[in-house]
């Protein structure tokens, strides 16, 4: 039996899909990258914004065509949308399996029980971390691997559906994380990205009562091998500690990049969003990052048009973007998610055209800032990890500098997984154009 899975949403979903492949492989299923030859067709889904869900509904129609033309084909919806929509997915008659993020161990059993009708398991767990499961890596280049260090989220940012789809926060055994990092390094990987919705609240206590926090976990993973790069996401402005920054400074192989979602530049919005920091706090954290880690890459997420956002609030977001100068940003228009605190308490009252206009203003400003930030690197030399041929021109190689900026350069010699020193000769607003340095 062959399984095909499409993955949507965040990097944690990418890693979850690898966990699912591993669980199904043990039960005798093999992975296929072609939907046309699959016996089981699944999507690992995202609910974070309405357009993410609309996309999946389109895929359900496509999957259903396969199901109609090839009797016996099974369609499954996994992940956050499965958790949110539950039996409204099976009741379409187009979906056979609905499995939430904590029920993947039961997939083989659910597949086996399909004779009894559609199968659903959307129970959330307090302790499932898929600790003992070695993900079946699906990346193309064999260089960079995701490692989930925790699941769920204990924050209740009022706009966000994640706590409802992923359940309570739990940290994974530090030793299995380190073992997984050792294992991928031995298999040729040269970069791991530690994943959690709020990595700074990672906390795990061993049998002797010794507690590992995120700073010590970072240190443990950094010590696996100096040639193994370590990245992580996502940091929460409220929780990122000086200890984490100092740990980054101590280890060359911990990449100097922090993804620090700000969401808004207005304190009134931040409070309404239930983010637990102010603009002033955020700017202090940025200053600290730049003091302890000069040259550190800084990226962010922002939401335009949250409930009751005024022009003044929006201007504060623009001025924060101007002041900080992020290298890049993920920028979104607010999308109300049913069941969240904001959906229950605050009207979604910024008109769509205003949201769009504000979002476009942020995008335009950030475009200009990105170009400035990339230009600053012209003339510098970076040690980059080769990811493979560049998408634009296969005779070029691409790979990221420690600060997360993508570099491309002409190179007939090196291969994916090599470290190369390049010199930056030019840039766009998303790429550093380089040459091999002598
Ligand atoms: N745990 C991460 C974010 C996970 S969701 C953090 O706390 O930063 C990724 C991003 O999606 C968020 O940072 C936010 O900018 C955006 N997002 C989440 N809910 C949203 C919503 N309802 N509408 C628009 N954007 C949203
Ligand atoms: Fe959502 Fe906030 Fe948790 Fe991030 S920290 S996943 S934005 S609730
Ligand atoms: Fe989406 Fe779920 Fe990730 S809602 S962003 S896939 S945690």
Description:
The chain has about 450 residues and is α/β, with parallel strands linked by helices. It has helices at about 10-25, 50-70, 80-85, 85-90, 105-110, 160-165, 175-185, 215-220, 240-250, 265-270, 280-290, 310-325, 340-345, 350-375; strands at about 1-5, 30, 40-45, 75-80, 95-100, 120, 145-150, 150, 170, 190-195, 205, 210-215, 230-235, 255-260, 295-305, 330-335, 380-390, 395-400, 405-410, 420-425, 430-435. The strands form 6 sheets. It has a 6-stranded parallel β-sheet with strand order 2-1-3-4-5-6, sandwiched between helices. A 5-stranded mixed beta barrel has the order 17-18-19-21-20. The site of iron/sulfur cluster (SF4) has 9 residues, from α6.
Largest sheet: 6 strands, parallel
**Strand portion, in percent?**
15-25%
Quickly give the structural class. Answer: alpha/beta
Counted by DSSP, the helix tally is 14
Count of DSSP E strands?
Answer: 21
Computed over alpha carbons, the radius of gyration is 22 Å
CATH topology of the largest domain: Rossmann fold
**Helix share, percent:** 25-40%
CATH class of the largest domain: Alpha Beta
| Superfamily (CATH H level) name of the largest domain | Methylthiotransferase, N-terminal domain
From the spread of the alpha carbons, the general shape counts as globular
Rounded average pLDDT: 97
Number of domains: 4
The N- to C-terminal Cα distance equals 51 Å
Strands in their spatial order, largest beta sheet? 2-1-3-4-5-6
**Hetero ligands:** S-adenosyl-L-homocysteine, iron/sulfur cluster, FE3-S4 cluster
Low-confidence spans: none
Report the CATH architecture of the largest domain: 3-Layer(aba) Sandwich
